[in-house]
């Protein structure tokens, strides 16, 4: 099992009192499996991704990722988790503006001690980035930036990829093409995928689908 959540709950303090965002969530994801997480705006999808990646902590319950108990890790342990085990593809890319495409592509792999020039070359070719390797993020279209963000995550070969609306900034045709390529490449690396999407059409392309409603999972 790459990911397991047991009785995970998360609350936020608000001016109106405590808000329960996730209630008693149980969820498992096996090696190489892909799961789509859907749900209305505000249902807790991003919060769940933040907890799994160690960007935020649950108030109750246990989260295990790649054999590490995330809910018990300190800040250093959670940073190491994101460096070594988990790869994140955000809707807003988070590319490094001062680095060119080639350096952005290899950045996480280098941090994780898993630089592999042959794999990076293959990724840049298959993602159509080879002619763009010397450019900087601001010189790229949105679709090109998204392909760099996907390549950067895959280059580091994480065991679990978390993606938050990874094609949300692309039109349907480009979004579908990038999604197909992303799923193909992820399948080749054997990574598991947990993807947040509003689109039931995209969700249907993954192995399993779960829906969050008022902080609970409905399948
Ligand atoms: N730091 C915070 N403090 C208080 N409330 C928060 C905080 N972060 C999120 N929330 C609330 O938690 C709920 C879940 O937010 P979350 O971002 O996880 O939803 P989501 O399903 O990802 O929504 P969307 O699809 O719109 O991105 C929302 O009601 C939101 O207002």
Automatic annotation (TrEMBL):
<dbReference type="InterPro" id="IPR003593">
    <property type="entry name" value="AAA+_ATPase"/>
</dbReference>
<protein>
    <submittedName>
        <fullName>ABC transporter ATP-binding protein</fullName>
    </submittedName>
</protein>
<dbReference type="GO" id="GO:0005524">
    <property type="term" value="F:ATP binding"/>
</dbReference>
<dbReference type="InterPro" id="IPR017871">
    <property type="entry name" value="ABC_transporter-like_CS"/>
</dbReference>
<keyword id="KW-0547">Nucleotide-binding</keyword>
<dbReference type="InterPro" id="IPR003439">
    <property type="entry name" value="ABC_transporter-like_ATP-bd"/>
</dbReference>
<dbReference type="InterPro" id="IPR017911">
    <property type="entry name" value="MacB-like_ATP-bd"/>
</dbReference>
<keyword id="KW-0067">ATP-binding</keyword>
<keyword id="KW-0813">Transport</keyword>
<dbReference type="Pfam" id="PF00005">
    <property type="entry name" value="ABC_tran"/>
</dbReference>
<dbReference type="InterPro" id="IPR015854">
    <property type="entry name" value="ABC_transpr_LolD-like"/>
</dbReference>
<comment type="similarity">
    <text>Belongs to the ABC transporter superfamily.</text>
</comment>
<dbReference type="InterPro" id="IPR027417">
    <property type="entry name" value="P-loop_NTPase"/>
</dbReference>
<feature type="domain" description="ABC transporter">
    <location>
        <begin position="3"/>
        <end position="218"/>
    </location>
</feature>
């Amino acid at each position: 099992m790459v990911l397991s959540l047991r009785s995970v709950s998360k609350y936020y303090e608000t001016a109106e009192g405590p808000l329960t965002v996730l209630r008693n969530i149980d969820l498992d994801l096996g090696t190489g499996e892909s799961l789509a997480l859907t749900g209305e705006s505000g249902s807790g999808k991003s919060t769940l991704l933040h907890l799994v990646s160690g960007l935020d902590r649950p108030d109750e319950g246990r989260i295990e990722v790649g054999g590490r108990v995330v809910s018990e890790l300190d800040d250093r342990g959670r940073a190491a988790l994101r460096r070594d085990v988990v790869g994140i593809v955000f809707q807003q890319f988070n590319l490094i503006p001062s680095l060119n495409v080639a350096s952005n592509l290899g950045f996480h792999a280098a941090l994780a001690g898993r630089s592999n020039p042959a794999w990076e070359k293959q990724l840049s070719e298959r993602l159509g980035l080879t002619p763009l390797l010397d450019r900087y993020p601001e010189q790229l279209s949105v679709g090109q930036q998204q392909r760099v963000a996907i390549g950067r995550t895959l280059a580091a070969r994480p065991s679990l990829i978390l993606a938050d609306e990874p094609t949300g900034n692309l039109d349907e045709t480009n979004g579908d093409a990038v999604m197909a390529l992303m799923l193909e490449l992820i399948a080749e690396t054997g990574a598991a995928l947990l993807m947040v999407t509003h689109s039931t059409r995209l969700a249907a392309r993954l192995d399993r689908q779960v829906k969050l409603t008022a902080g609970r999972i409905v399948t």
